[in-house]
Amino acid sequence: MASEGTGERTDGPGTTHRDPGAAAAAAEAALVAAGVSPQARGEALTVEEFAAIAENRADADAVDTAQHAQHTEESRPS
Fold first, then answer.
1. Which residue range is the domain that position 18 belongs to?
2. From 30's CA, which of 45, 50, 52, 72 has a CA 20 to 30 Å away?
3. Would you tell me how many other CB atoms lie within 10 Å of the CB of residue 19?
């Protein structure tokens, strides 16, 4: 079963699975926001680049969590 608009699949209460395509897009967005080429090899990155990627990924996770919470709240019956 797919959660509408979230890129997640649920198999029942408490289990969600992210769409691999959505995860790849989120990873690419974090790389680009950090100023790192999505084609860069991991072993060639500096510590600063890894930190920038992590920081941008954390920002994306916070937005995703907020959007998911809003969607969940909107889906609940009044």
1. 2-75
2. 72
3. 15
3-state secondary structure the chain: CEECCCCEEEEECCEEEECHHHHHHHHHHHHHHCCCCCCCCHHHCCHHHHHHHHHHHHHHHHHHHHHHHHHHHHHCCC
- Total structural domains in the chain? 1
Q: Tens of pLDDT along 15-63? A: 556 678 888 888 899 999 999 999 999 999 999 999 999 988 877 776 6
List, edge to edge, every strand of the sheet that includes 8-12: 2-3, 8-12, 15-18
Structure tokens at 51: 């930190």
Q: What's the pTM value of the predicted model, to 2 decimals?
A: 0.55
